[in-house]
Automatic annotation (TrEMBL):
It comes from Guptibacillus hwajinpoensis. Residues 146-211 form the HTH luxR-type domain. Keywords: DNA-binding, Phosphoprotein, Transcription, Transcription regulation. The lineage of its organism: Bacteria, Bacillati, Bacillota, Bacilli, Bacillales. This is LuxR family transcriptional regulator. Residues 4-120 form the Response regulatory domain. One of its GO terms (molecular function) is DNA binding.
Length: 217
């Protein structure tokens, strides 16, 4: 079964180049193209793609707002940012909006395919520069604070955090751990508070950086 992919970029040549390359992959079906953020949201609602390849700077609505709206309504939809910007002012808002992937437009084609397949399978994959920006931001905010302790988490919170590091949504975590989505949300909120991070992506990056789950993460 092929994954359905929506392209969102305001440059026609970029979309044509991406389509030409991606549609040659046996497991990818291009279901639509959007030239604005608003059109991306509208088409995503209509076409229900598995993955959206999203530019950041677009007319009518930028990629961050489009990502935020789509993730709020369709948390299982995977969104990969494909942009030319690698600074904190773009990386952090995009990840906080819910993007599973963040890549630059000069990416090697094989690396782009890997990122798309990783997102589709529920794994997070970021460009090294984007990862550096996230880790730098976390380090800066922790300079005068006590380091977060894994021991402060309950057994169930650790289980939830482990699933978060695997890129799973609340619905998927609930199914895996045999608990309700409401309970998962409660645990996620507690985890973020105890680790003093802003979102689940930062929690996952922290857990990975500290090797809290060994090779599992």
């Amino acid at each position: 079964m092929r994954m359905k992919l929506l392209l969102a970029d305001d440059h026609l040549l970029v979309r044509k180049g991406l389509r030409l390359f991606l549609q040659s992959q046996p497991d990818i079906e291009i279901v639509g193209e959007a030239s604005t953020g608003l059109e991306a949201v509208t088409l995503a609602k209509q076409l229900q793609p598995d993955v959206v390849l999203m530019d950041l700077i677009m007319p009518e609505m930028d990629g961050i707002e489009a990502t935020k709206q789509l993730k709020q309504k369709y948390p299982g939809m995977k969104i990969i940012i494909l942009t030319s910007f690698s600074d904190q002012d773009h990386v952090l808002p995009a990840i906080r909006a819910g993007a599973e992937g963040y890549q630059l437009k000069d990416i090697d084609p094989d690396e782009l395919i890997y990122t798309i397949r990783a997102a589709y399978s529920g794994k997070r994959h970021l460009h090294p520069l984007a990862t550096d920006q996230l880790m730098s931001h976390m380090t800066e905010t922790k300079k005068d604070e006590k380091e977060p302790r894994f021991e402060t988490l309950t057994k169930r919170e650790r289980d939830v955090l482990r699933e978060i590091t695997l890129g799973k949504s609340n619905k998927e975590i609930a199914s895996t751990l045999y608990i309700t989505e409401k309970t998962v949300k409660t645990h996620v909120s507690s985890i973020l508070s105890k680790l003093d991070v802003h979102d689940r992506t930062q929690a996952a990056l922290l857990a990975t950086k500290e090797h809290w789950f060994g090779e599992e993460a």
